[in-house]
Design brief:
The chain has 113 residues and is mainly α. It has one domain. The protein is 86% helix and 0% strand. Helix 1 runs antiparallel to helix 2 and helix 2 packs antiparallel against helix 4. It is elongated and about 50 Å long.
Length: 113
């Protein structure tokens, strides 16, 4: 469990680094996002079945990941610098939320054990 959570954090941090770059590559962001989403769905989402107290946090992570998917897609289609910067800010805000949710998930797991 702890390794899965650390891996998710690592994926999220990579996304943060990519989103903060001066000229983010849409393809790289998309690939890293898909890796992050798959990891969450396969390794962390099933925790909700065994640890009921984690369910609300897992739901929020899942919701925020879906919203982040939209930001990644919109960033890929952005043509103007101002639009790109706006999408980057939105992505970074959601990534910050996801990192906060990871800490909450870690606490929920610790309380269950």
């Amino acid at each position: 469990m702890k390794n899965a959570l650390e891996t998710l954090r690592s994926h999220l941090q990579t996304l943060v680094d990519l989103a903060q770059s001066a000229n983010p590559s849409g393809r790289n962001l998309q690939a890293q996002f898909l890796l992050t989403q798959q990891h969450f769905q396969h390794h962390l989402l099933p925790l909700g079945e065994n640890l009921p107290s984690t369910q609300p946090v897992l739901t929020e992570i899942n919701r925020t990941l879906r919203l982040l998917a939209m930001d990644v897609a919109f960033l890929q289609t952005a043509r103007q610098s101002a639009t790109t910067q706006q999408r980057q800010r939105q992505m970074l805000a959601k990534l910050g939320q996801l990192l906060t949710f990871c800490r909450a998930l870690e606490q929920a797991i610790a309380n269950e054990v």
